[in-house]
Design goal:
single chain; 104 residues; mainly beta
Amino acid sequence: IYFTDGSYLSVLIPHYPIDSLVHLGQVEGDYINRAFYTQLEVNQALYSDVYETRITIDPTSEQSTEHNYLFAKNYGCVKFSSQVAGQNTKEEWVLKSSALLPLE
């Protein structure tokens, strides 16, 4: 994901083994593929081939931020959550609806 300030995060790197923590650098933080699901229900929709990933930005800081993602085949990101260490508020969004269109 690229941001307007020129920074970016690697949010899906499927070639890394499940549960293998990879340090991508001070700016990008730590990356892990947490799980792979052949099927997973999210917001009352059933998806197939779903990766669950997590990025921890600035993991050694008291203000580290954890981003969690769910990516489904043919849909992309279907769920995202973010939380700063030590804070009770959590930012979260979920794909509400979608429709796949056939290629012409």
